[in-house]
């Protein structure tokens, strides 16, 4: 059956709205604007029904195995309401404070603990993020907790690390309008630890430097010297 054949299910109705708008709905895209009131619960039920079929195809006795009987429902809730909620929930609201003192010094927030999942195997990515900001007099300033909330919203999607930090840098840049923004992420990828090559010492570290952090090597060095990255 093609995606468009059965629009009795909620995912199909949501997908149709997105397609009509011409927007993308990749694994790391937020689709909250296309989800109507009450539909998320229905989506959980739909995902649970399909996950139950997956367990049946894995030849697990979901009717008699007391430990697995509710697994499909648990995993569906986990995906939609927890680990991938950054796709389905709107952006957290940000309380903005004007930069009344015209602060223009380097500010660093981190390490922020982040949890994501790779889009290839849906295995966890567990890591830390540091955010550097060089505000200007027109920038908005946020309470510290909001950096963690935005990072969590961006990370709670299946994706690759390189794209995750670009998305985080874009979102923060749009909201803060600073002279420069830097994001560094260091993370463990469980698709490498738990399975596959089973190398549990390797981290992935990457960075995005924008504006003043890109153009001013002294500022970039100051930021990098103030964050504490781990060696493998
Ligand atoms: N660049 C990048 N690669 C990632 C990330 N997360 C996982 N990967 C890698 O993406 C690849 C997944 O694609 P394939 O090589 O087709 O998958 P596979 O055959 O199961 O690969 P193995 O893990 O080597 O068994 C693996 O090499 C993963 O280690 C990420 O955030 N960034």
Automatic annotation (TrEMBL):
E.C. code: 3.5.4.16
Gene Ontology biological-process annotations: one-carbon metabolic process; tetrahydrobiopterin biosynthetic process; tetrahydrofolate biosynthetic process
GO (cellular component) term, any one: cytoplasm
Catalytic activity as recorded in UniProt: GTP + H2O = 7,8-dihydroneopterin 3'-triphosphate + formate + H(+)
Domain GTP cyclohydrolase I residue range list: 50-228
Keyword terms of this UniProt record: GTP-binding, Hydrolase, Nucleotide-binding, One-carbon metabolism
Leading EC class: hydrolase
InterPro entries according to UniProt: GTP-CH-I_C/QueF, GTP-CH-I_N, GTP_CycHdrlase_I, GTP_CycHdrlase_I_dom
Pfam name, any one: GTP_cyclohydroI
MF-aspect GO terms: GTP binding; GTP cyclohydrolase I activity; zinc ion binding
Domain of life the protein comes from: Bacteria
Pathway this chain belongs to: Cofactor biosynthesis; 7,8-dihydroneopterin triphosphate biosynthesis; 7,8-dihydroneopterin triphosphate from GTP: step 1/1
Assembly: Toroid-shaped homodecamer, composed of two pentamers of five dimers.
Protein name: GTP cyclohydrolase I
Source species taxonomy: Bacteria, Pseudomonadati, Pseudomonadota, Alphaproteobacteria, Hyphomonadales
């Amino acid at each position: 059956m093609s995606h468009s054949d059965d629009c009795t299910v909620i995912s199909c109705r949501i997908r149709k709205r997105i397609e009509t708008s011409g927007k993308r709905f990749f694994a790391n895209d937020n689709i909250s604007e296309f989800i109507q009131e009450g539909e998320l619960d229905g989506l959980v039920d739909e995902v649970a029904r399909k996950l139950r079929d997956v367990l049946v195809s894995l030849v697990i006795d979901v009717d008699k195995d007391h430990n697995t009987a509710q697994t499909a429902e648990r995993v569906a809730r986990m995906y939609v309401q927890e680990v991938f909620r950054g796709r389905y929930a709107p952006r957290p609201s940000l309380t903005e404070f004007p930069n009344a003192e015209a602060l223009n010094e380097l500010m660093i927030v981190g390490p922020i603990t982040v949890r994501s999942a790779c889009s290839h195997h849906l295995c966890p990515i567990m890591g830390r993020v540091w955010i550097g900001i060089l505000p200007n007099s027109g920038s908005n300033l946020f309470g510290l907790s909001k950096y963690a909330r935005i990072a969590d919203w961006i990370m709670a999607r299946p994706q690759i690390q390189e794209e995750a930090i670009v998305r985080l840098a874009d979102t923060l840049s749009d909201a803060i309008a600073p002279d420069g923004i830097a994001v560094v992420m260091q993370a463990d990828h469980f698709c490498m630890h738990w399975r596959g090559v089973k190398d549990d010492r390797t981290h992935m570290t990457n960075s995005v430097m924008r504006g003043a952090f890109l153009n001013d090597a002294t500022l970039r060095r100051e930021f990098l010297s103030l964050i504490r990255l781990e060696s493998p």
